[in-house]
Amino acid sequence: MAPLKNLEQDYTIIDSNFLNFCASHGIFSVEDFLIHDLYKLAAFAEQNISSERLKEGITQVLSIIDDMHQPWLNGMELLEDAKRNKHSLPTGIQGIDFLLGGGIRVGQLTELVGPSSSGKTQVCLQTASNVASNHMGTVVYLDTGNSFSPQRIAHFLGMTNELASSEIKNQILQRVMSNILCHSVFDIFEMFDVLHKLEYRLRSQDRGVCQMRLLIIDSISLLITPVLGGTSSQGRALMVSAGYLLKKLADQHNLAVLVTNHTVGGEGGTSKPALGESWKSIPHSRLLLSCDRGSNVCNVSILKHPSMTGEDKGVRWEREINMHLDTTATAIEWALAELINNPAVLEKARQVMEKVVGNNRIVQESDTANLPYIQAII
């Protein structure tokens, strides 16, 4: 969430007096204005000795909010934009790249959906490794559950450079790792802070240096799920704001944005992507990952894609991918070990388990549909 104080350096009307006035009414960010009664706020401003300047500040913030929505575009402008962003970043996974016609699209938001241990994190790590190792640009990786693994990236690089000498392998590893910037993020407000700082950095980025090309959030549902629910609409507003900001970064700075989402129980016992209908329309593309543990065969299918129609179904909409995954037991053992190293996430998981399961019985498989936070961790 962008603090109002971040606007102080660009807008002189938003000074310490205005910030203190807003804070006295529980407004600390731009997003807070969306859920506040602005008529009452203006009435309070009238009672202040600096009423005119405060009202100018309110008008300025409202103008900033108005500028946040996507501009109107006619058909020709949309076509030109599609041509401009038509290139893709290969993931390095042949089946997925074939299915998407080259990889994840630059200028767009792509979502990977799947149950626990379906390979979402592995796709993220392999994509980051492939983009960083093939001189495509730098990668920013927001890790929300301690799932980022330098060892696994080193393993991917070793597989693609088997014939290289040890010295060359070390040089490649150092170059790739220096091009992947990982941030640990454990709540949605921290994510907003990182994204706004990233936006500022991209605006001032020197075109002569190695450009950022890929933003990964694994997993975004782990950040959004805790703020949803209840009668308040604030959580939904935060979710939509996050989606808008990600799409804005992708479009304005020519990035590919890749996020992961877990699945929850739907009608008739079938699974469906988490985060509900409001989130459904936000990603440009949605890929569903699944894995048959018996055969260790993984499949990816397209749930949504801007350049594919129903006529493509059965031809390119589903493809087996050759991707070796850890066993479920190994994945759970690894997840538990990481939880111990992250007290904040561990405490949140304990609270969720206590609320859903209670203290007097063991977790059953039937409970998993009601434990999206735990699914996202694993």
Q: Looking across the biggest beta sheet, what order are the strands in? A: 5-4-6-7-3-10-11-12
CATH homologous superfamily designation of the largest domain: P-loop containing nucleotide triphosphate hydrolases
CATH-scheme architecture of the largest domain: 3-Layer(aba) Sandwich
Q: How many whole angstroms does the radius of gyration measure? A: 23 Å
H/E series, N to C?
Answer: HHHHHEHEEHEHHEHEHHEEEHEEEHHH
DSSP, total strands: 12
CATH topology of the largest domain: Rossmann fold
Based on secondary structure, the structural category is alpha/beta
- Describe the main β-sheet briefly: 8 strands, mixed
> How far is the N terminus from the C terminus?
27 Å
Report the average pLDDT across residues: 80
Percent helix range: 40-55%
Protein name: DNA repair protein RAD51 homolog 4 isoform X1
InterPro entries: AAA+_ATPase, Cyt_P450, Cyt_P450_sf, HRR_RAD51_Paralog, P-loop_NTPase, Rad51_C, Rad51D_C, RecA_ATP-bd
Organism: Theobroma cacao (Cacao)
Keywords: ATP-binding, DNA damage, DNA recombination, DNA repair, DNA-binding, Nucleotide-binding, Nucleus
